[in-house]
Design a protein that fits this description.
Elements (H helix, E strand, L loop, with lengths): L8 E3 L1 H4 L26 E3 L29 H21 L3 E2 L5 E3 L5 E3 L18 E8 L11 H14 L3 E2 L5 E10 L4 H14 L4 E4 L2 H13 L4 E2 L17 E2 L6 H15 L8 E8 L2 H16 L6 E8 L7 H9 L4 E5 L3 H13 L1 H4 L2 E4 L11 H4 L10 E4 L14 H12 L9 H21 L6 H9 L2 E2 L10 E2 L11 E8 L4 E10 L9 E2 L4 E2 L1
Parallel strand pairs: 6-8, 6-9, 10-11, 12-13, 12-14, 14-15, 15-16
Antiparallel strand pairs: 1-2, 3-4, 4-5, 7-8, 16-19, 17-18, 19-20, 21-22
Helix pairs in contact: 2-13, 3-13, 4-5, 6-7, 8-9, 13-14
Length: 541
């Protein structure tokens, strides 16, 4: 294994003080209420310029652990591990006597997690609505159309994993009922105005038991209602820090990936390590920012990080905004390129990730900008491969990414991994080509923890119900097969509202069409402070 010639080590303590709270309003104001420096003692290497792993994608990163982390080598071994881990969660809940009180008014869980069930939907709430003796009604609002339509491909593979476990009888609960998931998908086109009535339709007409949603602005418009009605919305498809708020929004759990605020902090640390490569220059960092709540949290968190940087007097931050449904991004990309930045960050999503690569190749930014960065929401090969960028695929060569420690279903070095092999097999059986969309992998990645939470909830006293489902989620501590070795999926009541807090920097190898790991896996488990989101001020409190 090639070692770096020189490794710059940064202490993440000051940076992570911003995590989950380094977020400002539309006027650029910022606030900080993240972890204190004493909460983060470890130092970690942030993507040294030289690789510390052999080419071959995500198979051989170095983690912060001193001992090698081994994962099961067969799907059967994985299933055995998950059985043990689910049982441990169930035993922890039962041993601590967490759950619904005898009078049915209060739900308790880990680390002070408490829900007043008597306030749910004005007292008319049912913990079993959406359940029959044979069915679990599960609703999902997501974009199947528009510029973010690619994300809708996740529903195809989510259905595959739901059906796979449904057919196995995995959702047999402690009351003896065996159910299957009835997965109901509604297209909101990434338009929050469309999301609101669709959520109402799912809850009031379909009577769904639990809910998924995609998109920061869409979820922010509906999660208050879902929490007031005590509807589990677990592993929502957004990494906005607001969805790490077990105290004020106990029924919402955000994406099983690093929050956008944490990602922005890691971008900042990445840049700080490279400032000295330009000793006689003022540093310009350019960003294309999606003009909505999603893009603004990236932008505000990154600004807040820069305010703490020892190089802040040398760094000029330049942005252009783009509407989510804009058909092209060429004009703002040309404007940013004219500024001659040394760094560029695409704070966009879906189709616009690929468009940024193509635009940079066409307007000269690929040659003139030394560091080009994709966002974690476009992790995977499906946004950068030659099928998407065209030609020989070299337009994306050299781009960087902060991958939230996810395995890649298109990485040949991962094909022998039992989870990847199983996923590719079920996709092939459904006629899905993983090369065509990274969202196919996302559906499996997000679907797996939902399956586990439903199974844990079913094993609790009283069987599957809404209260048990959110309790299972808030006590979840398992090993996700889609994460790199050593990374855990863990929630802990009111203490830790984020399911996953890890990442690894990668760089795209256009010739081999693969992401190459650069540096160590950065594991920040338990370091991101929960976020009580103030929508009016646009900050975490």
């Amino acid at each position: 294994m090639q070692r770096p010639k020189s490794t710059v080590v940064v202490t993440l303590a000051a940076a992570i003080a911003l995590v989950g709270a380094a977020c400002g309003g539309d006027d650029g104001s910022t606030t900080s209420s993240g972890s204190s420096t004493s909460e983060v003692a470890a130092e970690t290497t942030i993507a040294p310029t030289e690789t510390t792993a052999e080419p071959g994608g995500t198979s051989a990163p170095e983690t912060e652990s001193t001992a090698p982390v081994e994962q099961p080598t067969t799907l059967e071994e994985w299933e055995a591990l998950w059985t043990e881990e689910r049982a441990a969660v169930v035993n922890r809940i039962k041993d601590n006597k967490w759950g619904v009180s005898a009078d049915g008014k209060t739900l308790t869980g880990p680390e002070g997690f408490t829900v007043d069930l008597s306030a749910c939907a004005g007292g008319s709430w049912s913990s079993t609505e959406g359940l029959t003796d044979t069915e679990i009604k599960f609703g999902h609002t997501i974009s199947l159309s528009g510029t973010t339509a690619d994300y809708g491909n996740a529903t195809k593979t989510a259905k595959l994993i739901f059906d796979y476990y449904s057919e196995q009888g995995a959702f047999k609960d402690s009351t003896g009922k065996t159910r299957k998931i009835n997965y109901i998908v509604k297209d909101d086109g990434y338009d929050s105005a469309r999301t609101i009535p669709l959520v109402d339709e799912l809850l009031d007409s379909e009577k769904t038991f639990a809910h998924w949603g995609l998109g920061t602005p869409n979820i922010l418009k509906t999660y208050d209602k879902l929490n007031q009605r005590c509807i589990p919305n677990v592993f929502m498809q957004s990494g906005h820090p607001a969805f790490g708020d077990p105290v004020n929004h106990p029924w919402t759990v955000g994406a099983p990936q690093t929050s956008y605020s944490t990602e922005a902090v890691l971008w900042g640390a990445f840049i700080d390590q490279r400032v000295n490569e330009f000793p006689d220059e003022q540093i310009k960092v350019a960003a294309l920012v999606m003009n909505n709540d999603f893009g603004r949290i990236y932008d505000a968190s990154f600004k807040a990080y820069l305010e703490t940087s020892e190089h802040k007097d040398r760094i000029e931050y330049i942005t252009q905004t783009i509407e989510p449904q804009a058909p092209t991004i060429n004009d703002p990309m040309t404007t940013l390129g004219a500024e001659k930045p040394q760094f560029f960050i695409a704070m966009v999503a879906a189709q616009q990730c690929t468009q940024a690569i193509v635009a940079a190749a066409e307007n000269g930014m690929k040659e003139s900008v030394k560091y080009l960065m994709q966002p974690a929401v476009c992790t995977g090969t499906g946004y950068v491969n030659k099928e998407k960028v065209g030609g020989d695929g070299m337009a994306a060569d050299g781009w960087w990414l902060m991958n939230p420690a996810f395995k890649d279903f298109n990485d040949p070095s991962q094909f022998s991994d039992p989870w990847i092999a199983w996923g590719r097999e079920v996709m092939a059986g459904a006629g899905l080509d993983p090369k065509l969309s990274s969202s196919f992998g996302t559906g499996l990645l997000y679907g797996w923890p939902l399956v586990q939470v439903l199974r844990i909830a079913g094993d609790l006293d009283g069987g599957l119900n809404r209260a048990n489902m959110i309790l299972a989620a808030r006590a979840l501590d398992m090993t996700h097969p889609g994460y790199l070795p050593g990374v855990k999926m863990r929630l802990n009541g009111n203490k830790d509202g984020y399911a996953e807090e890890a990442g690894v920097f990668q760089q795209w190898d256009g010739a081999n069409q693969i992401w190459v790991v650069k540096g160590k896996v950065i594991d920040l488990d338990g370091k991101s402070k929960n976020c009580a989101w103030d929508a009016g001020a646009g900050v975490c409190r």
